[in-house]
Design a protein that fits this description.
The complex is a heterodimer of chains A (115) and B (112). Chain A is mostly beta strands. Chain A has no helices and eleven strands. In chain A, the strands form two sheets. In chain A, strands 2, 4, 5, 6, 9, 10 and 11 form a seven-stranded mixed sheet that branches. In chain A, strands 1-3-8-7 form a four-stranded antiparallel sheet, with no helix packed on it. The radius of gyration of chain A is 14 Å and the shape is globular. Classes of the chains: A mainly beta (115), B mainly beta (112). Chains A and B meet through β5, β9 and β10 of A and β4, β5, β9 and β10 of B.
Amino acid sequence: DARVTQTPRHKVTEMGQEVTMRCQPILGHNTVFWYRQTMMQGLELLAYFRNRAPLDDSGMPKDRFSAEMPDATLATLKIQPSEPRDSAVYFCASGRITGGGFEQYFGPGTRLTVT
Amino acid sequence: KQEVTQIPAALSVPEGENLVLNCSFTDSAIYNLQWFRQDPGKGLTSLLLIQSSQREQTSGRLNASLDKSSGRSTLYIAASQPGDSATYLCAVNPSGTYKYIFGTGTRLKVLA
């Protein structure tokens, strides 16, 4: 049963600390997305990659956030330094184009709390 | 700029009722539309994917329709059950991109 995995599932950290979240996309999926979900803003797209190349990171605060895909099986989202307003659930999703269209599959999320 | 709206924001219905959730989008130039379900504290589960050339898709008690020209999609749930209680989100994939724009969701509660 192929699925997107994310680590850690929960993270509590103090303001100013570095946070790294990891995602393993479904094998064979060549498009990877990072989203952030909060009660106030809903689900926001932060960045996405296609064939490991960043295509759009316009939703990401550039001064503190960075997203990379060092290889096809790993995507990372890093926040440095973290701030309380970064507290949210961060989702990774992966997808690929098939004859049936382009469908996304979501991971379980990383719940980040910055105190 | 593509915007996606879902109405109502919340809905409570008695078990067994048929119901319709609405999704509207401002730009009809889309490649796909996808409906998701999210349970509290969980990730999103894909329910149905409709390509722009299709009018509807069905899976079990769920039927999703798409009217691209009017910028609308509906998710029909037949014979609702308490287990259907969740937040339902629609997302559109604008043509020429690989990203999805999400609506804010409809929180559904089915009462036993």
